[in-house]
């Protein structure tokens, strides 16, 4: 009843006020609009203002023309009939085409900031040479914008960002900066001289290859610009996306110590001649434009720089279960300072609590509860460390028989391997003789293209550092590894103990060992492993080994880049589902970078894709050269030790890079002679052990494949059947 | 399947009336019905009648129809058999020669008449009517991120559900995403088990995986079952059997079925027997390649020498639409038996049968080596493709 009374006593006047409140304003106000949406869709005078102003100064005709620029670009007729008195010079067809392409290049760099008319004039005077035209244009702007900027700086701290008369080229230093940024910049000004070398110095040590800055006198103004840009990054939201991209590009180039090497010789002289021009800044602008055309040029240069520093190697640790792989590597990481004391102490305590004190080091790499509880590695553990001369991506493979698919995934991404064997009496024998994984692992990594192998003879402390035992194992292994196809010179044997840490980082100190061993420690050996030549000039290919939701937008895709390179902003396609996306960020070893190339273990954040459509085994490629997708292909295989012969219709598991897919051997074409490769028998009844053959394989779902002759690493695969590896092969022909 | 009546002439012609009782019987029926046979069964047909005033009305009537079979279609997932053909017995609703598609239904009898009932067909009927052979097994084959829920009946393996999840890897310092999605995956598998496995029929549930996935999963499932009080799982806990397999793909089921622990528990189901026979063939091929052959030409040659000890043959070959081809295989089977050989007819729905079908569908283990067959091999099989 009380509610009814309320109704009776209600003051309607009040209600109607509320009504007005609700309907009096527009609906949009009720919704929160994200800043980025607002930027895109909502007109803001403040944003457009300076541009309008700049055009107003040149007269209204120009403004109009700018608005129609888009149309005019496509329709040159239109620009001729433009209301200005500007007449395009009479050009032949060829010249016209040259002009158009030149203009396009120029626009890529300067955007809409230069009137078309000026561009055309410049292009004609410079005979359609893009670089010269651009230089001339930028010079022209430089002089006018330079004045502008000086004024701004003088205005000092409280200055509000005044819209400049004319917008300068985006990649340049003298861009109108937001108030705060301008303030910082001006504050920096007096200290220019001291800052500039500092910047150069600062960026030097991080990647090692920074010789670039030393060349020639350091262009001071560019450095200031650099500083400013850095300070302005946070506020760059005010500018358009396009400008943003450019800023980033510049920052990247500068912070990486990019040289103005892209320029051709004549340009350098031009540069040197014009004192007002900032070589560094201009060069990077120019480089940016090239990058957008051909990203590989950039990456290969960056790569060669990086090569001068520490070489990158991908190292997989293999061996029989319980040989001590994880413990060895965990201890190594600890000794190298990758794991801090507190963390290690925690592991020690916790493992003791579980009654597995000896597993403490293994816990560094075995992180899931299941792995720790059972004391075995299940999935490949990925981490990185540095030795004096190498940057190492470490892949800790599981040794257990059931996890060989995971081990293959890891080994497929490796360049070099450490084979860990247990020196304990009986343990080595079980691991090595039939049924153990030592043989299988060694064969696998060899078939997957690993040629350099370090054999860590582990747990030698349990046999009293006996030399005879060491030699016995070396003898047995040496014979086998030679058969497996490893060159003797590429295999090294290191006695060590993962648990005590003997001969891991520092040279052996144990008297029982030093008595007969004086060789390198494990780290020294790793340091001496060579990095293979990376196919960075080929199309971009990255095999997806992990897909997860990272922080922020986009989906993180991890895996080793097999060839080519990728940089932020690239469009990529993920096969076999052909998902198109854009790269938003790249991380190598959990550090953000702007680019990554072949050999890197990169996590790439991609937007615009559906997580459901990609999985482990997909391949991320450049849009222009996607990887072929096949469900039936011809291959040349070599069979290992088989329990049952392989006939046609034989179901196998195809392991290819990170993918494992059920497949059927649908046709046996011929068997071949092992060394000469001549056909021994056509249409054989079955393939027996150690035979070499050509077969057709059909997968149940399409997989990404490359021919061996095109891409060595991407043309290899393994065949497994009911828990054992039965063969390895290379793709020779894609059927469909 | 229940056999109601059997009326065969001396020359092999005649008719048989059967009542299918479970979905597997449809598979048997599929193997019996071929183009050219006549099939009589009750069915529903839409009949349009025109009244004297010209207005037409249509209604569905249940009627008995006899058709001459033209197309036989079997849906494995739903276990439905559709038979299309022309009416050969006029009744008040359907004219002669009118097309009709019979959907064979459970527990409705049908009569199948053939010009010739051969030994394979008769065996099939016998097998279908043998109650002792009905032993249903469910199998969950899984690996991290992939699980298949299969139903294994004496003559069929049906994939009831395929669960595929992307499971992020463990990464340095963070494996929470890995653990979380793993649990989500286990939950999905558990739901699928509840949905697809009928514990009243199934005698045993095999959970097979490499590594510890099976242990982890079973642990999770029964924990959840206790938590959610899922009675059906708790009551049937003893039916779950954990087996090792090398992967989570379908063909790993073969390993599961040949596992001695499983065979002991399942008595001798047909599926397990087939796996064993195929394994024997491969072992022979490895050890004495001259005593194991595949391909119809080779096997026939061997048979001519009365050398066949065990004949492995896929039932797909008997479904051939060409009568002559079928007769060739039937003759082979009869002849092998006459010579004292053992004949194993593989169901093409089983994993082992699938493999045999791809291996030309017919294979033989011989009593004595016949090395010269290999030569015939190359000449005759080259014209196959």
CATH level-two architecture of the largest domain in chain B: Roll
CATH domain topology of the largest domain in chain B: SH3 type barrels
The CATH homologous superfamily name of the largest domain in chain A equals: P-loop containing nucleotide triphosphate hydrolases
User: What is the CATH superfamily label of the largest domain in chain B?
Assistant: Pelota, domain A
> Please, how many domains of chain B?
3
Q: Per the principal axes of the C-alpha atoms, what is the gross shape of chain A?
A: globular
Largest interface, Cβ cutoff 8 Å? A-B, 51 and 47 residues
Secondary-structure-based class of chain B equals alpha+beta
Query: Termini separation of chain B (Å)?
Result: 40 Å
Given this structure, which CATH class of the largest domain in chain A is correct?
Alpha Beta
What does this structure look like?
The complex is a heterodimer of chains A (736) and B (385). Chain A has 736 residues and is an alpha+beta fold. Chain A folds into four domains: 177-308, no CATH class; 312-528, P-loop containing nucleotide triphosphate hydrolases (Rossmann fold, 3-Layer(aba) Sandwich); 541-622, Elongation Factor Tu (Ef-tu), domain 3 (Beta Barrel); 629-734, Translation factors (Elongation Factor Tu (Ef-tu), domain 3), CATH 2.40.30.10. In chain A, 39% of the residues lie in helices and 21% in strands. Chain A contains 26 helices and 23 strands. In chain A, the strands form four sheets. Chain A has a six-stranded mixed sheet with strand order 2-3-1-4-5-6, sandwiched between helices. Chain A has a six-stranded antiparallel β-barrel with strand order 7-9-15-12-11-16. A six-stranded antiparallel beta barrel of chain A has the order 17-21-19-18-22-23. Chain B has 385 residues and is α+β, with helices and mostly antiparallel strands. Chain B has three domains: 2-133, Roll (SH3 type barrels), CATH 2.30.30.870; 136-267, eRF1 domain 2 (Nucleotidyltransferase, domain 5); 271-381, 2-Layer Sandwich (60s Ribosomal Protein L30, Chain: A), CATH 3.30.1330. Chain B contains twelve helices and 16 strands. Chain B has helices spanning 23-32, 119-129, 176-196, 213-228, 231-235, 252-258, 260-266, 270-287, 296-304, 323-338, 351-358, 373-381; strands spanning 2-8, 14-19, 38-50, 56-75, 80-87, 99-104, 110-114, 136-143, 146-153, 156-164, 202-209, 240-244, 292-294, 308-314, 342-346, 362-366. A seven-stranded antiparallel sheet of chain B has the order 1-2-7-3-4-5-6, with helices on both faces. In chain B, strand 3 and strand 4 (56-75) form a beta hairpin. In chain B, helix 1 (23-32) runs antiparallel to helix 2 (119-129) and helix 9 (296-304) runs antiparallel to helix 12 (373-381). Chain B starts with a strand and ends with a helix. The model of chain B is unreliable at 378-385 (pLDDT under 50). The interface between A and B is large, with 51 and 47 residues. Chain A: Residues 310-536 form the Tr-type G domain. Chain A: Residues 62-80 have a biased composition (Basic and acidic residues). Chain A: InterPro entries: EFTu-like_2, GTP-eEF1A_C, HBS1-like_N, HBS1-like_N_sf, P-loop_NTPase, T_Tr_GTP-bd_dom, TRAFAC_GTPase_members, Transl_B-barrel_sf. Chain A: Residues 59-92, 143-182, 228-259 are annotated as: Disordered. Chain A: Belongs to the TRAFAC class translation factor GTPase superfamily. Classic translation factor GTPase family. EF-Tu/EF-1A subfamily.
